[in-house]
Amino acid sequence: MATSLMERRTVFMRVGEDRLGKDSVRLDKDTIARYNWEGGPTYFDAIMKHARQNNGKVLIPFNSIASARNIKLCTYFVMWRKLPDGDEYISGSIYDAGKGYLRGMDDGDKYTAPPEFLAPKATRWVKLFNLKRGRNFPFDDYMKDTYRSSDVEVVSMPLMECLENSKMSVIFAMRKED
C-alpha cells in the first residue's frame, strides 16, 4: 500500500545523554561538588512516565532553528540518543507544533510538559501522542533528501550517513515506502 509524502515525513532529533537534575556547584576555587550524576530518571524516562499519566499525551519543549511550520508538515517525531551499548529512541505522532514555549504552557488540550523539565523557555515545542520507546533505531528505513537549488536535483542520503557527516540536532527525514 502506497503512503503519501506527508505520512512518511519525520522529524529526527538527536539528543544528549543527560539525566534530569544532573548538576554541579563550585564550593571554592579548587573544589566542585557534583550531584545526581549517576542513576535517577533520564529525559526519556520523564517523557514516557508523563505520557502514561496523561492518556499518552506529552508536550516536549526544545531549542532549534527548525521552523514550526516544517515540523507541522511531518507526521512523526523521533528523539534519539547514542548509548555506550547501542542507541535508544522515543517516537510519536505529531499532534501540533509551535514556537515560543514557556514553562507551564497549557493550551487546555491536555498536552503538557513533564514537570521535571525545568527550562523556563524554549524556542520550539511539539505535542505528541502514541509514544513508543525502543532500542536500535531502524536507520535503514529512513533517508534524508537534499535539494540542490541550482538544478532542483534531489540527492538522497541514508539517515545514518547524514548523522555521521553532520552536527545538526534536528533533521527532516523520510521513511522509505513499504
Overview of this structure, please?
This protein has 178 residues and is mostly beta strands. It has one domain. It is built from four helices and ten strands, in the order H-E-E-E-H-E-H-E-E-E-E-E-H-E. The strands form two sheets. The protein has an eight-stranded mixed beta sheet. A hairpin with a 2-residue loop joins strand 2 and strand 3. It is globular and about 60 Å long. The mean pLDDT is 82.
Structure summary:
The chain has 178 residues and is mostly beta strands. It has four helices and ten strands; from the N terminus they run αβββαβαβββββαβ. Strand 2 and strand 3 form a beta hairpin.
- Helicity level: 10-25%
Question: Structural class of the secondary structure composition?
Answer: mainly beta
Gyration radius, rounded = 18 Å
| Continuous helix count | 4
* Major sheet description: 8 strands, mixed
Beta fraction of the residues? over 45%
SSE series: HEEEHEHEEEEEHE
Low-confidence stretches: none
- Largest beta sheet: strand ordering: 4-7-6-5-1-10-8-9
Q: Please give the alpha-carbon distance between the first and last residues.
A: 7 Å
Number of E strands: 10
